[in-house]
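Handout, section B. The chain below has 164 residues.
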Amino acid sequence: MSKEFTHIDNDNPSMVDVGQKAVTTRTAIARALVQLPEEMSDFIKDGEVVTLKGPVFQTAIIAGIQGAKKTPELIPLCHTLNLNKVAIDIQLKDELLVEITCEARCSGKTGVEMEALTGASVAALTIYDMCKALSHNIVIKDTRLLTKTGGKSDFSMPQPGEDK
């Protein structure tokens, strides 16, 4: 089976026709990491970053959910989906590394990978926005799809030490 780009039709961009595909439960989990700079240590209280703008992680969770819901407005060839679930989890993994995970789910004819990736990305951007007054030395990194289920094939990012 040869791989080919699905969003090109007769050398022009196009939205993939999913009309003949079966409706299945589709899930995806994406992750983004935000490395905070040392100067932010004083603003971390009980596993949360607190700034004059308010609780950073709680605001980022709401922004990430909104971002996932708006994915087809941001990514031109994404289908509009009726999302059943979007959940954002934000954890301080060590003193200055923030891990954001976004889970998206729907019953549909196409996957929710882009919604999960967009949700994690928008949450990360919100953390940056809320903390940039303290420092611009914030790094958003390692945004990736961790898992997807439903449709033709499932996907799981190999864990460190696993065969690829």
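Note. DSSP finds three helices and ten strands in the chain. Compare this with the example in section A.
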